């Protein structure tokens, strides 16, 4: 009885969570032009989407910004995490962490508005550059937060051991620390990528006229009403997310398996 | 005398107001097994870390084969460490761990492979090279940590409580193996532990430490038989420590009686402490008793009975006896003069050694007949 | 580690330090600075006096906080049982992944989906017609705004609560049962207090963004609900009154700090009981 209730509750929650997504994608295959009354199957909206050169350029922009900003943010964030981890004074560490988290907890509009003031004051033109800089900026703290726990797991005696066996600072970094924290770095890069792809508000503030990302484009089209090309786009993006999640878990599985294979050798 | 391999001259270590080490002097000779023994926080690990190069000495010199190495970084010192938590690299296989130091030295692949194999054979894990660290048991990880250090062919191997995480049986086995390994390699081992049994079993020489100072050094037998003060007597082995008074050379009073003893060179009427090990006390009938005690409780320990008793003055006694006693019984205790060890308050190791010089030799003649 | 690693390594820290200075400290300083300037770039306190004297702004602020509270409350009421039941499942990590998956869909696409669902002839009205109530105006109402915002926030609440449940040592539950507590008593006296940090983290993750979801108020709320976020966006990008926008921004920052303090972990620092 209780079991039944639990199941029912979860089923309802999952239906609510997924209904809009299923609804959205289902209508991307509808022959009509609105999201009411299904009119039979068609690929038409996908054809429109893939021949919409403006949309394709925006997709390319979005991916370029996401990849570039994630790479740079991962680099800076990892170095930052290494730095924070090296601080010995508790006060310094706590205040660095607090500062690090400011952008994590700030509402998007505040980040967007303050960056807009910042770029305007420095006379940095709004467009690709300002969007890229903003994305790097709000991705750095998540990278730090993903890398730091791994660094903390690293025991001090392990670093002593590496030195004891003759490692220089550079070798310590390249042969012990980086390989050890690489799962954290990878997770950080991945999170940065999703933050970038997901962002709307910050980009909306700092993008100017000439440059647009997918989120901004969807917003302006959605304000004009229903357009099933957007449904087709969401179908493509959902598939892309699935691939990304799948890829992420696949890589994790592989590294787990590699460990297990070695472990398996014992018996 | 040969050149000592490691020397510490007046080494101190302070963090802000805390003195971790005060005026440490110690000399390690080549090819011996040394132990730093003391309770946790006594500074023994700090000594190890200053020798390894992970910690700076605040003042004093650290010499390696006669050369000052205070400013030589850890990665350039010819000593290697086996860490308490093993500190094996979890992202490398067993062989990669052992090969780590040699790889950094850019040795030829064939040489690395051979030396790694040799080291793994030495710790009896020859076939384990391809395994992940997480696939090893605690005891196996311990051996790999040793292999990783000895593959570097250090002249001194530092071991920081390496057996503390193992269960009792494995620990005993590893004691034999470590001792054996040290003798086969012929290098100096400096072993840190808080376990006095471990120290007594393995060492050529023990340094007993407390609160940042070395209290006494010497062979396990010397330290067990002639502890320099209350702390050492209490820390090493079990003991009965009683207040007493020196009557004359070889005569001491405690527990309300006067007894013959093996110590001399102490001023008459000086208050002293007397140590008697529980296994040196023998139960006897009241007629032959040197002291009379009342039995309180006893525990069967397998190879002996541990008996707790009280004498007429209220002193507690701990007795190890092969035969059981009856709770509440009055029973006699007897012991030989050389089973008593007299300790002066505040006597330093140098003073103790000097005093011993003055009457040693006479002592052996006196008790020959017993 | 001694001398060996101390030297030169601070160079690695420079990019991160620059980021802290330019993109964390400077922007916050700038938004506070900007809030003291009027449209003609003159120093003024007028923005603040306007804000605190104007019934419109104050009402907007109260409304915004009230809606954010409602959204947080509904999200919590739905999420706690979900996380709790989810945690009892066999393949819970897989199900949790399914909860997280929708957060990967762009928030604007989800909002867009609801434009379709809530439209005059949309799915929701078809359902209402089917059960006999008849079609209603759903889109561009306050209720639809709260519904969609709650929908979007649910995974962000479930996740920290689930993690808190995961951190809970099952021995505590066994101990509570062993001492004679019923299931409900165990939940109320042991499980809930110990997972409260997860709830607080969830509140942080939901409440603050709910104050500033300007795209939802535009797309779903039809500008009926004006949140602090909407007002900021309006001042910055439409009326170009950056001073006033920054003033509201400062209010939002203060609101954020209050929420963070209220829900922050109250671990007694230094062991002194409070």
Describe the structure.
The complex is a heterotrimer of chains A (about 270), B (about 375) and C (about 270). Chain A has about 270 residues and is mainly α. Chain A has a domain of about 150 residues: MetI-like fold, CATH 1.10.3720. Chain A has 11 helices and no strands. In chain A, helix 3 runs antiparallel to helix 8 and helix 6 crosses helix 8. The radius of gyration of chain A is 23 Å and the shape is globular. The longest helix of chain B has 18 residues. In chain B, the strands form 4 sheets. Chain B has a 6-stranded mixed beta sheet with strand order 6-7-8-3-9-10, with helices on both faces. Chain B folds into 2 domains: about 220 residues, 3-Layer(aba) Sandwich (Rossmann fold); about 130 residues, Nucleic acid-binding proteins (OB fold (Dihydrolipoamide Acetyltransferase, E2P), Beta Barrel), CATH 2.40.50. By secondary structure, chain B is an alpha+beta fold. Chain B is about 25% helix and about 30% strand. The mean pLDDT of chain B is about 90. In chain B, helix 5 links the parallel strand 7 and strand 8. The relative contact order of chain C is 0.12. In chain C, helix 11 runs antiparallel to helix 12. Chain C: It is found in: Cell membrane. Chain C: It comes from Levilactobacillus brevis ATCC 14869 = DSM 20054.
């Amino acid at each position: 009885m209780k079991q039944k209730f639990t199941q029912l509750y979860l089923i309802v929650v999952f239906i609510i969570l997924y209904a809009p997504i299923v609804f959205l994608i289902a209508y991307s295959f509808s022959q009509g032009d609105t999201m009411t009354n299904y009119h039979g199957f068609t690929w038409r909206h996908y054809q429109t989407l893939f021949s919409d050169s403006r949309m394709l350029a925006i997709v390319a922009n979005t991916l370029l910004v996401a990849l570039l900003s994630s790479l740079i943010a991962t680099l800076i964030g990892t170095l930052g995490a290494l730095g924070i981890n090296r601080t010995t004074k508790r006060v310094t560490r706590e205040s660095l962490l607090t500062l690090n988290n400011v952008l994590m907890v700030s509402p998007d509009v505040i980040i967007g508005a303050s960056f807009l003031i910042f770029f305007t004051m420095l006379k940095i033109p709004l467009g690709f550059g300002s969007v890229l800089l903003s994305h790097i900026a709000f991705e750095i703290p998540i990278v730090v937060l993903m890398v730091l726990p791994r660094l903390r797991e690293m025991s001090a005696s392990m670093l002593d051991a590496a030195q004891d066996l003759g490692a220089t600072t550079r070798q310590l970094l390249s042969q012990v620390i980086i390989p050890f924290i690489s799962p954290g770095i990878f997770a950080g890069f991945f999170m940065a990528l999703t933050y970038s792809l997901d962002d709307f508000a910050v980009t909306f503030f700092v993008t100017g006229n000439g440059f647009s990302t997918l989120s901004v484009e969807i917003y302006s089209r959605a304000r004009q009403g229903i357009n099933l090309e957007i449904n087709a786009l969401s179908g493509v993006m959902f598939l892309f997310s699935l691939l990304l999640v799948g890829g992420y878990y696949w890589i994790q599985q592989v590294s787990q398996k590699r460990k297990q294979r070695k472990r398996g050798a014992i018996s | 005398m040969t050149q000592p391999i490691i020397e510490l001259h007046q080494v101190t270590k302070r963090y802000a107001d805390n003195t971790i080490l005060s005026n440490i002097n110690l000399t390690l000779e080549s090819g011996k097994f040394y132990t730093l023994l003391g309770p946790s926080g006594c500074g023994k690990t700090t000594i190890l870390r200053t020798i390894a190069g992970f910690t700076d000495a605040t003042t004093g010199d650290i010499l390696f084969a006669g050369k000052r190495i205070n400013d030589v970084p850890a990665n350039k010192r010819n000593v290697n460490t086996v860490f308490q938590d093993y500190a094996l690299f979890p992202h490398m296989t067993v062989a990669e761990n052992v090969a780590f130091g040699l790889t950094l030295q850019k040795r030829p692949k064939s040489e690395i492979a051979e030396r790694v194999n040799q080291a793994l054979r030495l710790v009896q894990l020859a076939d384990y090279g391809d395994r992940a660290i997480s696939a090893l048991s605690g005891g196996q990880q311990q051996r790999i940590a040793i292999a990783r250090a000895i593959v570097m062919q250090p002249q001194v191997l530092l071991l920081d409580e390496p057996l503390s995480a193992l269960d009792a049986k494995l620990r005993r086995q590893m004691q034999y193996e470590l001792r054996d390994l040290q003798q086969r390699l012929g290098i100096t081992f400096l072993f840190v532990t808080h376990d006095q049994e471990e120290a007594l079993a393995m060492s050529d020489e023990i340094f007993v430490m407390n609160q940042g100072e070395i209290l006494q050094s010497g062979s396990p037998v010397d330290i067990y038989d002639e502890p320099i003060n209350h702390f050492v007597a209490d820390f090493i082995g079990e003991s009965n420590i009683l207040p007493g008074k020196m009557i004359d050379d070889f005569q001491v009073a405690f527990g309300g009686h006067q007894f013959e003893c093996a110590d001399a060179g102490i001023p008459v009427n000086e208050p002293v402490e007397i140590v008697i090990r529980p296994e040196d006390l023998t139960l006897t009938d009241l007629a032959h008793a040197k002291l009379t005690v009342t039995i309180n409780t006893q525990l069967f320990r397998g190879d002996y009975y541990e008996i707790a008793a009280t004498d007429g003055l209220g002193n507690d006694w701990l007795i190890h006896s092969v035969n059981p006693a009856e709770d509440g019984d009055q029973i006699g205790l007897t012991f030989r003069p050389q089973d008593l060890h007299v300790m002066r308050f505040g006597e330093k190791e140098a003073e103790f050694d000097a005093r011993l010089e003055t009457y040693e030799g006479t002592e052996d003649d006196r008790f020959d007949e017993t | 580690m001694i001398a060996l690693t101390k030297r030169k390594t601070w160079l690695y820290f420079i990019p991160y330090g620059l980021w802290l200075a330019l993109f964390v400290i400077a922007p916050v300083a700038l938004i506070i600075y900007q809030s003291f300037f009027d449209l003609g770039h003159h120093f003024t306190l007028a923005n603040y006096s306007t804000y605190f004297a104007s019934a419109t702004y104050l009402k907007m602020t109260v409304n915004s906080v009230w809606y954010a509270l409602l959204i947080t409350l509904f999200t919590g009421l739905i999420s706690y049982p979900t996380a709790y039941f989810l945690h009892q499942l066999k393949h819970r990590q897989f199900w949790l992944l399914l909860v997280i998956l929708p957060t990967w869909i762009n928030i604007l696409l989800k909002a867009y989906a609801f434009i379709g669902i809530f439209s005059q002839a949309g799915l929701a009205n078809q359902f209402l017609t089917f059960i006999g109530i008849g079609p209603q105006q759903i889109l561009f109402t306050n209720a639809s705004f709260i519904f969609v915002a709650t929908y979007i926030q649910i995974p962000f609440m479930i996740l920290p609560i689930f993690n808190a449940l995961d951190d809970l040592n099952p021995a505590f539950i066994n101990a509570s049962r062993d001492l004679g507590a019923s299931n409900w008593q165990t939940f109320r006296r042991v499980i809930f207090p110990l997972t409260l940090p997860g709830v607080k983290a969830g509140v942080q993750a939901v409440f603050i963004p709910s104050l500033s979801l300007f795209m939802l108020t535009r797309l779903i709320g039809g500008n009926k609900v004006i949140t602090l976020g909407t007002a900021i966006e309006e001042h910055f990008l439409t009326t170009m009154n950056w001073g006033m926008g920054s003033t509201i921004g400062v209010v939002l920052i203060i609101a954020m700090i209050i929420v963070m303090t209220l829900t922050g972990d109250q671990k007694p620092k230094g062991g002194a009981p409070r």
